[in-house]
Amino acid sequence: MDLIQRISAEQQQLSKSERKVAELVLHDPETAIHRSIASLASLANVSEPTVNRFCRRLGCKGYPDFKLQLAQNLAKGTPFVNRHIEESDNVDELTQKIFDSTLSALSIARQSLDSRPISSAVDALVNARKIAFFGFGASASVAHDAQNKFARFDTPSSFSDDLLVQRMWAINSEPNDVLFCISHTGRTKALCEIAEIAHENGACVIGVTALDSPLSDFCRIVVSSNVPEDTDQYMPMASRIAQLVLIDAIIAGYTLKRGPQFREKLARVKEGLKGSRFQKSPDSSS
Amino acid sequence: MDLIQRISAEQQQLSKSERKVAELVLHDPETAIHRSIASLASLANVSEPTVNRFCRRLGCKGYPDFKLQLAQNLAKGTPFVNRHIEESDNVDELTQKIFDSTLSALSIARQSLDSRPISSAVDALVNARKIAFFGFGASASVAHDAQNKFARFDTPSSFSDDLLVQRMWAINSEPNDVLFCISHTGRTKALCEIAEIAHENGACVIGVTALDSPLSDFCRIVVSSNVPEDTDQYMPMASRIAQLVLIDAIIAGYTLKRGPQFREKLARVKEGLKGSRFQKSPDSSS
DNA sequence: TTGATTATGTAACTTTACTACATTTAGGCT
DNA sequence: AGCCTAAATGTAGTAAAGTTACATAATCAA
After folding, report:
1. Cross-referenced PROSITE patterns, in alphabetical order (chains A, B) (predicted)?
2. B76, B106, B135 — which closes off a domain?
């Protein structure tokens, strides 16, 4: 656990004066690392030894050591604590918080990543006859995004958030077909049904979902993201971003595995998109 | 340019004694940050002021400042630099790289953020009569995602990636209607046309796009993300993630501005979604 | 070689952080 | 309440670290 997290964790157990220091540091860590102990102390309205004791309580050797660790912590760029949004936040604070918690979730997901299912997914895709991406609600747009990327490839792919279309696809599925079922919770009844049908037909069902969920029972491969609870209480935020990035990784793996002449094709596809744009600086699709 | 790079760059122009210090630091930076100026000086067989002068020559305020910068430099260690994917990467490396570059892009976007257009967008939405989210290609799924979130709210909202549907909406648009046009480059001809029509009808066109792009000419508000060039050469990766997070921020601002009784409604919507799921741990939509 | 210029080191000084101790504050018990 | 104990906080002195001013040594051009 890094220093900033340690401070916010221990904040409760600190004494009154020490908590003043903690608040100051958490509120503006940048400032702290450029100040002397005396200046920080007076800023927090406490004495110098209090600041020193505060540092030691956090496991530092002294104030200079504390500054050093804090500096490193900041440089690492994971001061993204899941700070919850408050009624009093202005738009600027709020925006920063949203970015922070997304970054935080992504970086946690990155650490607790299992590349094996991703690898299996790539293998399945390379041999796929046709591919589909299904999901509902917020996961539908993730599926949509994934299909959009596969549209660049030469294997037939489809997306749907329509129950009946999905069911038809599943019923017609065969071995060597790949079905991506996307659901954060893995508890959406309708999607489980679809997955079951495809699974029974011998298709390779890949779940971008939670491990040990009802949906995962029907999946040959489960790619899970292990993001912390969503910051926002009303709708998925960070979880779907993690799903997108996971799928990006699968796509990158696929692109690589298909070899150089496949990537030439991709370059041609990209070139071909230019016709739809006002020219100036050639860029990726949008 | 970071400190270590700066040292090796200036190494040639340094005097004999100062070069000794430079070599020492480059050879073992870890040690340097934990030593006092005296200890470092004796280790390099030079005097203390020499070390001090060395620090200043590198643009630091003094030795403590030098240590701080060096520490930050080291902590960055394997920063989320846009490390390009290589043929030889295995799936694990590749996945890490994809996550890294996404994190990198997001954190850059976070730093160079202008909250004013976000704030204006929130204001426009609060007064909106109807709202639409349009985009093509990868941006279509972003628009899809945004609409999915607005489906929870009480203002009529729609999404389309269909040229004709979009055009019909634009033609029917009026003042107080809000149109989100999503495009990374802001150069997609079709979308510009739609934006122009809506704009001429007096609707509030909000571009989630690049500043100074053709599209931005028809936008009353431009929310831009300033992400670095996309890592992947073939398709948008990081840029669309940044778009999503920007829209998340707008939504969070909107939710907050609508006040507590509006959030109660949201809670009811979330509760209502449960019926579509296998129960166990209630969670957000998927 | 010599004078000027730059590089380096010495020593005094200033700032910074730490330690030991005194004072205050808070909580428990009669 | 009033007292006692223990914890928390601050004061003042001390040690250590960093900086500055100046003196000496090295380098180079004429």
Report:
1. HTH_RPIR (PS51071), SIS (PS51464)
2. B76
